[in-house]
Amino acid sequence: MDHSETQDTSLYRSQDQTVATWFRSGEPWIWVTGAAVAVSVIAVVGLLLILAVRGLGHFWPSDIVQFDYVDARSGTQTVVAGQLADSEQVSLEQLSSSGLALDPSLGDIRRRDLIKTGNRDLTGADFRWFLYERMSTIEKPEGLMVLERREWGNFYGYLLAVKEAGVTVTEQPPMVFSEPVWEEFRSRLQRALDLNETIQDIEKNDTRALNYRLEQLRLDERALELNENLDSQLRQRESARIAEARAEIAVKYDVLQETLNDLHTQIGRDSFTAITVTGQEVELTFAKVVHALLPNQMSVLEKVLAWFAKLAEFLSEEPREANTEGGVYPAIFGTVLMVLLMSIMVTPFGVVAAVYLREYAKQGVVTRTIRIAVNNLAGVPSIVYGVFGLGFFVYGVGEQVDHLFFEAALPAPTFGTPGLLWASLTLAILTVPVVIVATEEGLARIPRSVREGSLALGATKAETLWRVVLPMASPAMMTGVILAVARAAGEVAPLMLVGVVKLAPALPLDGNFPFLHLDQKFMHLGFHIYDVGFQSPNVEAARPLVYATALLLVVVIAVLNFSAVNIRNHLREKYKALEH
Length: 580
Description:
The chain has helices spanning 3-24, 27-56, 92-97, 120-123, 179-226, 232-267, 300-316, 329-360, 365-377, 382-405, 420-445, 448-456, 461-488, 495-498, 525-534, 539-574, 576-579, and strands spanning 65-70, 77-91, 109-116, 127-131, 135-139, 145-149, 154-164, 167-171, 270-275, 281-285, 289-293, 319-320, 325-326. By secondary structure, it is of the alpha+beta class.
């Protein structure tokens, strides 16, 4: 071997040693970990962007296009108007297999647009696919309006006339825009919206309060019938009181009914006629319209304001049209309330269990077995907890509670049916292993010298635990609560068995005693996503709402977690000095 070969061998050996040293230093794993974190962050940000673009874009008042379309099957030409909902590229082979005869010389890939044409009550469907190559005379007329209705979805067409009690007040020629006619239309629509708001306020608050009082009187009367040991004079006095209260409620109910009848008469006074782009005339009442817009005339600022108004409605109103229109406020309220109740229930139970295992239980086989069982419970499928909650809480505890405290309401169940309380307890059982493990780890990190110092100063073990150990372990407890909230807020499967429903007519928190009604069913954002995405009869209309509601659920969970994180950071700073 000559000198040059010896140098090459030494060089390769030196490089191998350098690479081996680099691997032994652990630096490659740092790069791998950093790359994994970067990929995860990119994936999360990408997911949020998709949810935001597809969900929030649904509320943007896009322009209405009108065009002539030649059907590829029948060859007939029709006029179409609507808003562009989606666009995609489709192969010629796929279109030909569906029975469409197309010219192959135009290429193998064709564009087709999904147009929200509305007018479902007239055409049977409010979304249709159109081949772009068969569209012609595409324009955006200024007078073309979109009406969001309480039923049958959107209406697209031109305003013809405004009527009062069947008499035409003002009108305009077909497919021609007149500013005075539109202003008259807007003013009467606002009047109808104000009247409808008054009607809903009476029905939700006043009428519901009277119905609640009537139900309480019915239960009082039933309790009198069941109480055989009650004195006859007292029974008569109670019966007279109930009858008097019923008569008083009946008078108030008649007054409210007269008011509602008068409001319904007023709101049904005004109507209008409109014409579709195909020439069909329809007459609608203002009571059926929620919003009226002329998107083709709106400036960017006006569209931004309309977008914010629509988003505010989504966050503050009740759902309509099988949850495909309106808002999700009851679902937001139910999700947050359930998570708060679950946190209140799971925290004490989890902390007490962790304190016993770490501070009081004898460390042996039994304790180790319990810890293994707790860790295994965290991996049990959530639907199993739902079945447990249904069987134990609803059919077991709930029925016993009804027989003990709500006998007058039987056979109608009060707590013997799924509700807010059982849903919160079920999720508390589901998340308690997380709180136990996190709290126990926090207790283990507290130095033994701290406990011994407290005992040396004359404090008892209980005082040391309450005044020193638990405050120092509170950040770890909050960590457990954060993890519990993150899991519980997104659970759907167990809630379907123990309390959540598609639509709840009343919130579980209101002005009627006892104010917080733990026996009521409630709405949940997670179940709302499932229902709209998989159970909706109008898939195309529901799709953007799935994205919007999913983004909202992420935001709600983030807000709850950030609130808990801030509390944890405050506690950590407060007790940092004691740890040292």
